[in-house]
Amino acid sequence: MTKPLNYKWKLLGLSLLWLLIPDLNAQTVPIADAEELRRIRQIQQIPIAPNFLGPNALPVPEIGKGKVSSRSRLEAGWTGSFSEGDDTQSFITNLNYVVLADRIAIHVQFVPVEFFNLTRDEQTRRNIEDEFFESSGTQTGDVYYGFEVQILKEKKGWPDLMVRGSVKTASGENVENGRFTDSPGYFFDASLGKDIKLDENRTIRPYGQLGFYSWQTYDVVLPQNDATMFGVGVDYDSEKYMFSSSLVGYAGWKDNGDDPVLWRIEGIKKLGKYDLKLGYQHGINDWQFRSITASLILNFDAAFNISS
User: Fold this and answer.
1) Within 13 Å, how many C-alpha atoms sit on residue 305's CB side?
2) What is the pLDDT of residues 258-285, one digit of tens each?
3) Is the model more confident about 102 or about 154?
4) How many whole angstroms separate alpha carbon 128 and alpha carbon 43?
5) Residue 16: how many other CB atoms lie within 10 Å
6) Distances in whole angstroms, Cα of residue 125 to Cα of each of 77, 85, 254
7) pLDDT tens, 46-70?
8) CB neighbours of residue 189 within 10 Å
9) Residue 19 — very low, low, confident or very high, per pLDDT cuts 50/70/90?
10) How far is residue 106's CA from residue 68's CA, in Å, rounded to a whole number?
11) Rounded distance, CA 183 to CA 57, Å?
């Protein structure tokens, strides 16, 4: 009587064991999925912070000067960003379209293409695996779009006050090679500025801003980094030239290379309908690049204009 019982129990045990053993054919991860899993692991190794990415991934926004322009402008040019491990040449575009002169504007910024060169030392610093490392290549960047609104206009000793907001798209890819974040973000700020007349044709304008900058990372536990954005600067404006100097940055809370501080200077030659701009940017903290920008600016009228 015991043998059939033992046989049945053995048969049942073997059946249960067979059910517990994974079906190797069914559980085999397709090659494409396996590659995507390796890509995800690679992305999670790179800090999504400005000190470990290309110069166009999480740039410090241009400083607000407390004033919406009276004229629209379209800018196109070239920026060369240089560091010990990453040299990047970028074609840049920037549209500031004034809907209502001195009151409301919308802006769009886009990096159509960048050309980059990375060293092996930079590969190691960014934790890039050999499988995903590209020592050189081209990449399309992110689109930023947003608005500017004049809240207060300078009057009786009070400064101008402008608020601004912008959204970052996820169009920039190749995060596994440290080029862009492939994730969304946004910022908003308020800025103050006041013109100080030197004579009929020359003014000095000091300005400052304070704001908030947020972007998505690939941290499973805390996927969002939030930063305080800040900046101070001054313009010297004359009939034919304008010179600017500013100290700008933002401070993230993860402390993983997310506290960039930059010094920027630029000069503009006014030619009426067109302007020529030359600028320089120097990283002070959590920003390894030194950048030179040369661009052409087309000025055109606002969509609407009303008296002050």
Assistant:
1) 7
2) 999 999 999 999 998 999 999 999 999 9
3) 102
4) 9
5) 10
6) 30, 9, 18
7) 899 999 999 999 999 999 999 999 9
8) 22
9) very low
10) 10
11) 10
What global pTM score does this model have?
0.85
Total residues belonging to the chain? 308
Q: What is the pLDDT of residue 23?
A: 45
Exposed/middle/buried for residue 222 (C-beta within 10 Å: 0-12, 13-18, 19+): exposed
* Count of beta carbons in the 10 Å neighbourhood of residue 284: 11
Six-digit token string for 100: 């209502």
For residues 4 and 105, what is the distance between their CA atoms, to the nearest angstrom? 87
Q: Is 279 exposed, middle or buried (0-12, 13-18, 19+ CB in 10 A)?
A: middle
- Buried/exposed 121-135: b ≥16 CB within 10 Å, e otherwise: ebbebbebeeebbbe
Tokens of 227: 């930063």
Task: Read off the pLDDT of residues 200-247 as tens digits, 9 standing for 90 and up.
Answer: 999 999 999 999 999 999 888 888 999 999 999 999 999 999 999 999
Give the Cα separation of 49 and 218 in Å (integer): 11
Answer yes or no: are the C-beta atoms of 289 and 81 closer than 8 Å: yes
Average pLDDT, the chain: 89
More confident: 41 or 30: 41
